[in-house]
Specification:
single chain, 728 residues, alpha+beta, 9-stranded mixed β-sheet, 6-stranded mixed β-sheet, 27 helices, 51% helix, binds adenosine-5'-diphosphate, binds magnesium ion
Length: 728
């Protein structure tokens, strides 16, 4: 009987590119399904338009009257596009997006029906969301949370549904999602950064945080993926011997995109355009069948929404092209993993990117202020920043043998390092007129020129300055960027707030001029945050030793890393910056550690099942073939059979050894899981999963992968790496 594997291969070979015709220019369809400013101008009354714009730009509340007008217009617009349902669209802490569709349709008396959608339905909903993780915030008897409209992220149509981006909070006020704390963090960084900007430009009224994410993913044929229980249940391969050819030749990286994949991408980009996701870049990544999509950067909250939406849309579009998308950080052992670089910057309502050097010495001093404060924030909170990207699946990248490492460091390039060295030598206290001139003309004033050749990018750095933005590269490909973006913006906000206090103190108490005070504080920052600056090779023992000397943390596993999320420093930080309360911080910690446990638990079960139900029986089958063969040889050759069947006999023995290896280790795995499950303390349970359960995966895999090399290919049940990675 042909195995599922051969059936899948046969089907996959029949999958042809699905040709996508693009009849309209992208600029023409961009945002077609978004209730954006342009659409609102057409559909809203002037009052309603001004109301929404004020809410977007200044955070003012939208009253019920305006909400009624907006909802009526939204409904008209949606109905004109054939939409039948609406949903509050939110991002619970499961990591995916959630929606519950309701029809506009409502019955009225006399057996008639109408389409209805009022302000109340737009503004607030109560999904029966008792099964979303809340980390114990909502008691089960009062399992109520509600969603509330976020007017800063425009509503959009997906399929036949109007989606309204919302926050998700408990009735007691605590956040149950990623968006709520992110909005608070963006508010905090706006306040703190605007105050600092006003040292340099009194016209600045608002500072926004920008995010440009780069999403990496793998594409695998849908049938081949469906033939692997591990891919279906865990999103990655738990076993499988590496292919004879992998990524050694680097022939995939930036190579011509295979035709089937290219058509998929065009289709995906078309969807992105309709949804207002400004998809811009596509290319092959390092590993075979690995790709990347990057949009043009946007305001951080919108960018996070767009990434969450993309992670949903990408799977649906892929399915149309007979692909399965693997967003997992490490779908294939021995191949490059996937990340989601978060390019981050701050910009003013006057149109200035605060992380790009300006044309005048004063604006360059402003740049240096934000640049150095960011580095200082990362240094002070490096452990928390590491924790912001800690998940079971990202552990395969950070701290494993892959860049970036679990040690957070900042790369700024040779030229800016020189500038910082010069600034370190600034005189304490008042500066002489000559020194000021010298600094402004020859140090600060020179920055614009030098940055142009700041091209020596360090690809292994987890946090790199790349000309006009910082690039946080440790974020995992499955992550909701809301989490790391909340933390990054909060720590920068806190740092800028402290900076302002220190500078003001020098001005008020020591009588220093504003620029002197800024230079003085920056000098101290440069001195104190040197340990975080690193431009060498970001992984390996040499750096680990060096980082330890510098006092940097190296938390390789999630249970270890997450501890920083509930430290006193963290709780104080979030409370001071009004981003999260202690209860919210602790709840999230609990959810994340629990997710880690469940993740490893599921992987363990799946691996045990596959090893015992697929691999061992196949090995036995092949061993029996060998046994028959040896018996036959004995019949024919009698005494000489021993030397003639020597190889077969040793194969029979080897197979038995591997079967034994699998069985004993799966038994151990089950025992360790049982032991771990009995541990009450959640932290200790997570550690047990990390230190006792997880290491057994490697042992089991080792024996399975060895068998894959020995057993007749015709009867091997699991689709092999070469098939998954090289079938196009
Ligand atoms: P790469 O890092 O792969 O060389 P780019 O630097 O061109 O690619 O851009 C990567 C991402 O960074 C894109 O999403 C881009 O829009 C975004 N980006 C560019 N400038 C900024 C900025 N000032 N703030 C935030 N993101 C930015
Ligand atoms: Mg990049």
């Amino acid at each position: 009987m042909p195995t599922l594997r051969f059936h899948a291969i046969k089907e996959s070979l029949a999958h042809k590119p699905i040709i996508i015709e693009e009849s309209k220019k992208r600029s023409e369809i961009f945002g077609e399904n978004v209730f954006n400013e342009n659409t609102m101008r057409q559909y809203l009354t002037k009052d309603a338009f001004v109301g929404v714009m004020n809410a977007v730009q200044h955070g003012t509340k939208i009253n019920r009257n305006i909400a009624d007008q907006v909802s009526a217009s939204m409904k008209d617009w949606a109905l004109s596009k054939g939409v039948t349902h609406y949903t509050h669209w939110f991002q619970p802490l499961t990591g995916t997006t959630a929606e519950k569709h309701d029809a506009f349709f409502e019955t009225v008396s006399g057996g008639m029906a109408i389409e209805k959608f009022d302000g109340g339905q737009l503004v607030q909903q109560e999904p029966d969301a008792s099964s979303f993780p809340s980390g114990g915030i909502r008691n089960t008897f009062e399992a109520r949370g509600y969603t509330a409209w976020d007017p800063t992220s425009p509503a959009f149509i997906y399929g036949s549904t109007l989606c309204i981006p919302t926050i998700f909070v408990a009735y007691t006020g605590e956040a149950l999602d990623y968006k709520t704390p992110l909005l608070r963090a963006l508010h905090a960084v706006d306040d703190a950064a605007t105050a600092v900007c006003r040292y340099f430009d009194k016209n600045v009224k608002k500072v926004s945080s920008s995010l440009g994410w780069e999403q990496e993913y793998f594409l695998v044929d849908k049938m081949l993926a469906a033939s692997r229980p591990d891919i279906i249940l865990t999103g990655r391969t738990l076993l499988g011997h590496s292919s004879a050819k992998g990524q050694q030749l680097d022939d995939h990286y930036f190579g011509a995109i295979p035709n089937r994949a290219l058509n998929f991408m065009r289709d995906l980009e078309h969807e992105c355009m309709l949804l207002g996701i400004p998809a811009k870049t596509r290319h092959n990544e390092v590993a075979p069948n690995q790709f990347e999509l990057a949009p043009i950067y946007e305001e951080a909250n919108l960018a996070v929404d767009h990434n969450s939406l993309l992670m949903d849309v990408i799977g649906r579009v892929a399915s149309r092209h007979n692909f399965k998308v693997l967003l997992h950080e490490k779908p294939f052992a021995g191949m490059n993993g996937s990340g989601k670089h978060n390019n981050w910057s701050l910009s003013t309502d006057t149109g200035v990117n605060l992380l790009a050097p300006g044309k005048t010495p004063m604006s360059s001093l402003q740049f240096l202020t934000f640049f150095i404060n960011t580095i200082k924030a990362v240094h002070t909170h490096e452990e928390l920043l590491r924790a912001s990207v800690a998940t079971a699946s990202n552990d395969h990248r950070l701290g494993a043998n892959e860049a970036p490492p679990a040690i957070i460091s900042v790369f700024i390039g040779e030229q800016l390092t020189k500038v910082l060295e010069e600034l370190e030598g600034v005189t304490k206290g008042k500066l002489s007129p000559q020194e000021k001139t010298e600094l402004k003309l020859n140090v600060v004033g020179k920055i614009p020129d030098v940055l142009l050749d700041n091209t020596d990018r360090n690809r292994t750095s987890p946090f790199a300055f790349t000309g006009n933005k910082f690039e946080f590269r440790a974020v995992g490909s499955t992550a909701n960027s809301g989490n790391p973006m909340t933390i990054l913006n909060t720590i920068v906000a806190k740092q800028l707030k402290d900076f302002k206090v220190e500078v003001d103190k020098l001005i008020d108490e020591k009588g220093l001029k504003k620029d002197e005070a800024v230079f003085n504080i920056l000098r101290e920052y440069i001195k104190s945050c040197k340990p975080i600056l690193f431009d060498g090779n970001g992984y390996g023992e040499v750096w680990e030793k060096e980082a330890k000397k510098r006092g940097l943390s190296n938390n390789k596993s999630t249970p270890e890393a997450l501890k920083a999320k509930i430290s006193k420093q963290t709780i104080d930080l979030f409370e001071e910056m009004n981003v999260m309360s202690k209860i919210e911080v602790e709840a999230r910690y609990e959810i994340e550690i629990e997710a880690y446990i469940k993740h490893i638990q599921i992987e363990g079960r799946v691996l045990g099942d596959i090893a015992r139900n697929h691999i061992v029986p196949t090995a036995v089958k092949y061993q029996n073939i060998l046994v028959e063969n040896v018996k036959g040889l004995k019949e024919i050759f009698d005494k000489d059979f021993k030397s003639i069947s020597k190889e077969q006999i040793s194969l029979i023995e080897e197979i038995s050894n591997h079967i034994k290896g699998i069985n004993t280790n799966v038994t151990k795995l089950i025992d360790e899981r049982k032991k771990a499950n009995k541990i009450e303390d959640i932290e200790k349970r997570a550690s047990a999963y990390c230190d006792k359960v997880k290491p057994l995966f490697d042992d089991i895999r080792y024996h399975c992968d060895k068998l894959e090399l020995m057993v007749d290919d015709e009867i091997w049940p699991l689709t092999k790496y070469r098939e998954l990675l090289f079938t196009r």
